[in-house]
Design goal:
With 227 residues, the chain is of the alpha/beta class. The chain is 36% helix and 9% strand. The chain has 7 helices and 5 strands; from the N terminus they run E-H-E-H-E-H-H-E-H-E-H-H. A 5-stranded parallel sheet has the order 3-2-1-4-5, with helices on both faces. Strand 2, helix 2 and strand 3 form a beta-alpha-beta unit. It is globular.
Length: 227
């Protein structure tokens, strides 16, 4: 069980996606938060950063500090033919396992951890959901990485995953309750400008989550989601 978060200043990994935006709003109700965006060189990052700037200008984030934008370039590891570098994700019905980005959470948390040590923050929150199939989204991984960072940085950092028992439709409901402008979030691997492509698996997950929550989907898709 995670420790109480009341009053504990937190860095929140936020990509402007639906899950991380709702997490940021929830954490901001409890304590001071610093949004952290880590750029690694993926095709959709410029659109994400624009979305994050728009979100932080809305009322649910009025008490949130400016985003810390960090860089940890992975284009010397992922080949130029990688779908995430080209911006050509797998198809609409692709399962999560086929869109795995090796080392994703390891990279994000490592860079964020160094920032936290410098700023004397003792908690990082991120938003993996129930059923996440990736090896760097397990309790054992987060616990081990927190221990390793404490050793390497001489600074204790808790890695918190408040949504780990929730599904995306649960997060949609929380976001609506918190007044998060979900239409401004971006959960797409091939955005067209600032619009969701409607054809990638992240768009499918997003559309399905609103349907499962019993709420209208406010997302502007280039390709309309199947009914």
């Amino acid at each position: 069980m995670e420790r109480s978060r009341e009053g504990q200043a937190t860095a929140v990994l936020c990509s402007a996606g639906l899950d991380s935006a709702v997490l940021l709003a929830q954490e901001a109700q409890r304590a001071a938060v610093t949004p952290v965006y880590v750029s690694v060189g993926l095709a959709w990052e410029e659109a994400e950063r624009r979305a994050l700037a728009r979100l932080l200008d809305t009322p649910p984030f009025a008490r949130v500090g400016p985003a810390a934008v960090l860089t940890f370039d992975m284009r010397d590891v992922y080949p130029p033919t990688h779908w995430a570098i080209r911006g050509e994700p797998p198809a609409y019905d692709t399962p999560d396992e086929d869109v795995y980005l090796a080392g994703r959470n390891l990279v994000l948390l490592t860079k964020a951890g160094v920032l936290c040590a410098q700023r004397r923050l003792s908690r990082i929150a991120l938003g993996p959901l129930a059923g996440n199939p990736f090896p760097d989204a397990t309790p054992a991984f987060f616990s081990s990485l927190a221990h390793a960072m404490a050793l390497g940085l001489a600074h204790d950092i808790e890695i918190a995953t408040p949504f780990a028992a929730l599904h995306k439709e649960d997060v949609v409901r929380i976001g609506v309750a918190l007044g998060v402008p979900l239409d401004l979030t971006l959960s797409c691997m091939s955005p067209r400008g600032d619009r969701h492509c409607g054809a990638c698996s992240k768009c499918r997950e997003r559309h399905d989550a609103f349907a499962a929550a019993g709420l209208p989907d406010p997302t502007d898709y280039v390709v309309p989601a199947p009914r």
